[in-house]
Structure formats: structure tokens, C-alpha cells
Amino acid sequence: MAIHKKIETTDKKIKAAFIYLVNEKGLNRVTVKDITDAAHINRSTFYKHFVDKPDLVNHYEQQFLEHVTQSLSVDHLQQNFDKQSRQERQLRLYSAINQIIEYVYDDLELAKALIGPNGDPYFEEKIKAMLDNILNSDLDFIKGNHELANYIPDDYAHEIIVSELLNIIKLWLSKANPEPPQKISEIIIRTRYLSPHDLLGVNDFDFKAIEHEVHKQLMKVTSQNFKNKKS
Predict the structure, then answer these.
(1) High-pLDDT (> 70) share of the chain, %
(2) Which residues bind DNA (predicted)?
(3) Which domains does the chain have, with CATH numbers?
(4) Model confidence pLDDT, tens digit, residues 107-140
């Protein structure tokens, strides 16, 4: 029990030192020596826990990714799916998202360090790739395929959906006093069912008319460019 307590204490010291140093110096400039000095441990103690700095970073990031993947996985959400009403499905999705937000909130300082401007720029790409895979899996389960509506190319549609989710979380983490998890979960759920013109309060949006007008303007510009080249 005493050994386990000591390991737990050392882990906490390393994490606290890591968070402090990332915020102060930026992840790229932090060294193992910086961490051991700030944590008041020797290097051999650090190496009993982690192979090197990348191993430490990967450990924290993988914990987060695995938790999110599990919470939003199809297997987790599909229990009795066929028997659920639309409202029940939405409540289950809200519950899963709220679970993730609460997990982040419980380790808020580490999340801020990793996703913030001084953190790991590659971590954002890992999160986006994970969310993209989850999006495809969910569509496969619900629709039988992961094809999107044919308004814009799929890669752009995926980028919009995934980046929007990530940006909400990044904005939340950047605040000095972040809203409670329940509030952010509600915002995320609402954005899943509202289009940008809904959010902006534009109720008389006519997509077909706008699309037709844009096409007309593009044809006019193309025609003018062609005339200019000939002259």
C-alpha cells in the first residue's frame, strides 16, 4: 500500500510539473531535466515511470483519446437502439458527451496544457482523426453507410463538423472561468441540430434561391474572364 501511495504521489508531482512547464515554456522547450527539477525528483525516478518525454506526452494524450472513443463508440450507444425513440437517442448522446466533458473538466489544467497554444499541435490532429472515425462509425450504424448529403464534398463536410466540435471545446478551455460541463454539453448537442443560419437567427433562408444566384454570378465572372482573355 505504501509503495502504491508513493507511485501515485510521484505521478501527481510529474503531472503538476509538466502542466506548469508547458504553460511557462511551451511543450517543445520542456526537457526531462526541467520536469525532474520542478517535480523535485531525480531522473532515475522519472525513468521508472516513463521512457522519455514523448512517452509521457503520449501517456496523457492516449488516456484522453481512449476515454473519448469509448464514451462515443457505437457499441456504447447502440444498446437497445432499435427500441429507442428519437428523444431517447438524443438523451443517450447527450449523456455520452456530458461524460466526456466532465472527464475533461476533472483534469482541466492538463487538457488546457495539451490543447492550448503552448501544447502539442499534433494532438489536435489526433483528436480530429478520432472524431472523424467516430462520425463515420455512427453514420454506418444509423444509416448503413457513411455518405453525407450531396451539398458539398464529403471531405469539406467532415472538416466543418469535426472542426466545429473541436473549436467549441478549445474556446471553452481558453476561458478563465469555463462554463460547467452540463452547459457545454447542451451547447454541443444544440449545434448538432441547428444550422449556422438557425444560430444567427436568419429564419427566411432560401438555400435554392441563394445557390441559383451564386451560380449566376459565377457564370457571369467566368464569361467576363473569357472575354478579357480574348481581347
Answers:
(1) 63
(2) 31-50
(3) 2-206 (1.10.357.10)
(4) 999 999 999 999 999 998 888 888 777 666 555 5
